[in-house]
Each structure stands twice: as structure tokens, then as C-alpha cells.
Amino acid sequence: MAHQIDTTSIGRASYASTQREWHGLGELLPQGADLETWAQAAGLTYKVQRAYPRFATERIDNHVPATSLTVYDERVILFRSDTGAPLGCVSPKYKVVQPREVLEFFSEWAAAGGMTIESAGVLFGGKRYFATAKLADGVFVDGTRDKIVPYALLSTSADGTLATEARWTSVRVVCNNTLRLATKGSAVFKLSHRSEWKPEVARDTIEAAQAEFGAFMSTARKLAGVRVEAKLAQEMTALLLRKGTEEADKTKESAGFTKIMSLFEGGGKGSTLETSRETAFGWLNACTEYYDHHIRAHSDENRTASALWGVGDDMKQRALEIALAV
């Protein structure tokens, strides 16, 4: 992932991983570390607590504390137990999935040896938190160098901006790009915060979707066999980035167009591998690298949130659709 993690709430990076990321932040943990170690290292030991907001109804001087406060019971404030920092203002019916529960989701699998926790962390000062677990050692697209690893990603929020979601995702090892294995259906479990969190249901959904990875690898190999020369790549990129009725020539003048083409033509990580050089798979990975690591954003944190759950995620899926149509 990019440098997207909370580095202020507890005085250090709220992130842990089994491999050193390029940003150099967070703690490096050995595979098989226990849940308490993961929780401490990833900054997931706090609890999300709630309180009703109160307000003063009397007119008072700005320098004089109010003596009487009225409780507003139609909303609640969610806040961190460790720092007291507010996280969100939500309905009293909002069902919270606690930070530690995100790690505990993987505990049964990890104990049985079916997967290993690979990373966990906190975003936006504690408003979002996540964990990933590697489901297998990975499969090579070409049999030798270009490996894709399947992961389970569990994420949730304490501010109402993100449902609780468990899904398969893929990571291309050579460039650390991510891509959802499926846009909908059996490979994704999503739960609104109006419903009670039942980890066993989410776990069953992810377990039942293992066939999705095999289908994804078939797609990757198919795309690696489709030749895409520069002119076609330009047309595909313009189609991806075009806004409404914008002319193709206008789209080609954008910074995004220039960057994606640069990544495709040799500037991207893994772009010189046989599976990527002038192929639809190479073009797709130029797009995923752009949305994961290069697109302009207010911060690296916002970029990664977009790449995993927002517009960036949607654009990567759109790129996949375009590549498959070639």
C-alpha cells in the first residue's frame, strides 16, 4: 500500500506488515505473530466508544462555561477510547465493528494454518481500519516471474463512510498493485452498520469464493496473450479517462493520460516482463499502478482509500472491462 496510514494519533505509525513497505513506516512483524502483537503494532488496541452530544440553550459569554446542557439523543458521537478524538456523528442504531474484531476475523483461519495475517492498520485518525491476510502463496501468470497473490481484505469504518466489507483482492508482487477479484456476487461480503456483525457469515462467504481466484488467473493469462501496440493503448487510455462528451484529443492532453502511457511503455514496475510488454495485461497494470500509487490526491492516505474503496477502485474495474473488450 501507499503511505496512507495514521501517524499522529498514538505518536507513531498505526500500521504493521510482514514485509517492509516502500514508505518505511510501521512495524515489521514475523509471520505467525499472535493477535495481541498485531493489535499493538498496528494501533488497533483502542475501542470505539459513544456519547450523546450536548449543547447549551442559554445565551452565555464566550468566556463563561455553560451551566446547563441539553442532550440530543437522536445522534451519537463515536470517539477513540485512548485519545478521546472524535471519529464520527452517527445514528444511535449504528453498529460498530471494533478495531480488534477486524484482526480477530482472521484468527480461526490463521490458527488452522489456512492463511497468514499480512498487514493491518488505521486510516484517517482511526475512522477506518483494516487487515489483510494472504490466502495462498500465489500463482505465476507466466510460470516463472510474474506472480499474483490472493488476499482477503476486511475493512470497516467508525464514521459511516464505509460499510463493513470482506472481499478477495489480488496483489501483483512485482509492483504491489491491487485489483478486486470481482465487482459483486459471491466474492464480496458487505454489511451496513445497521446490521449486527456476524464474522462467521463473512468467513463462509470468503471461503465459498475461492474459485474466483482461479477465474481471475485465467483472465490474467488471457490478457497477457493479447497484443496491444501503442496506438491501441492510447485509444484504451483515452476511453478510460474521458469525461462525458470530452473530445479524445483533450483527454490525451491530461496528466493522467501521459502517466498511464509512460507506465505502459516501460516506466511501470514489471512493465518489461514478457507478460506485460505490449499486452492488455501490461496496460491493465499500468492503470492499476497509476490509481494505486501516482494519481493526484490531497494525501497518500486519500489516494489509497480511493484505490481500495472509492473512485480509484471503480476506475481499475473499468480498466479491466476495457482490457477484456480488446
Short account of what is shown:
This protein is α+β, with helices and mostly antiparallel strands. Helix content is 34%, strand content 21%. The protein is built from 11 helices and 14 strands.
Please characterize this protein's 3D structure.
- The structure is a single chain.
- Strands 1, 2, 8, 9, 10, 11, 12, 13 and 14 form a nine-stranded mixed sheet that branches.
- It contains eleven helices and 14 strands.
- It has about 325 residues and is an alpha+beta fold.
- The chain is globular, with a radius of gyration of 22 Å.
- α6 crosses α11 and α8 packs across α9.
Describe the secondary-structure layout:
Elements: E1 15-17, E2 27-28, H1 35-42, E3 48-51, E4 54-56, E5 69-71, E6 76-80, E7 86-90, H2 99-104, H3 107-112, E8 116-123, E9 128-134, E10 139-140, E11 147-157, E12 164-172, E13 177-180, E14 188-191, H4 199-208, H5 211-224, H6 230-241, H7 248-251, H8 255-267, H9 280-294, H10 300-309, H11 311-324
Parallel strand pairs: 1-2
Antiparallel strand pairs: 1-8, 3-6, 4-5, 6-7, 8-9, 9-11, 10-11, 11-12, 12-13, 12-14
